[in-house]
Amino acid sequence: MKYRNLGKWGLKLSEVALGSWVTDLAGTEAEKTALETVNRAFDLGVNFFDCADAYSGGAAERFFGKALAQHARNEFVVSSKVFFPMGPGANDWGLSRKHIVEQLDKTLKNMKLDYIDLYFCHRFDPTTPIEETMQVLSDMVAAGKILYYGVSEWSPVQITEALAIVRENHLRPLSVIQPQYNMADRYIEGEIMGICEKNGVGIVPFSPLAQGLLTGKYRKGQPLPAGSRATWQADKQINNLLTDDNLDKVEALLKVADGLGIPLSVLALAWILRKKEISSVITGASRPSQLEANVAASGYTIPDDALAEIERILDYHPFVRRIG
Prior knowledge:
The protein is an alpha/beta fold. The chain contains eleven helices and ten strands.
């Protein structure tokens, strides 16, 4: 496993991270497999584990609290997020001082930790001034409850404003962002990646395999694989990606991966890690073997001729999309 700094900061993250489960696994056979996956992650050198308070109403945090308790605190970096509703009350969501302070305490309790390494604003809150949000996050760093903070799906303008507020008010720095980034969604290359490079902000993207599109399991003209995300995911994110154009690109990318002797998933992850601005890539894995395959991307360098062919296949043109 290779490690990279979090932007310009001193924290070292494994190039491949493990994301949390969004379903409640407590008391199931799946929980046993998930625990085995986390333990295997440590064996493979993974030190970064990502979560969020909203995943299964706190169940994902409690799972990680149980799984990580088997390991020394200095051996791992763990993150969580705040924004989405965690109850029916008017203040049970968002990025107000009240909600962040209260929810952070719940996260620490769920994970059985004294502090969170990375803490993200899951989405932008238009009902709360950015000044309020940046101030309370800075205060939580000063209080020792979090070490580094950042944002997830925020627009370039929102990120720029947040960075300006931090500078003007001499707050603890905004150190990291967690956007979506993969071969099928490269919007951060337009502005956000440059903003982060200029300000030393680390980037730890989620959905690097585009909901499974870039694993090669979904093929044009073939039925959906039994039990795959496309057969049960309620929001149909993956189904919306299964267009003829995307599936044609997958077929072409599979030929590139086959020529290099690696799985398409490894090619897709290594393609993200080709960018020096990326600090770590957050992957999902429901069993140890999936994680083992993903970890193979760490340290893998895609040859220049293959990179050129990938660019031809993707035929990327900068665009603007709705954030979040």
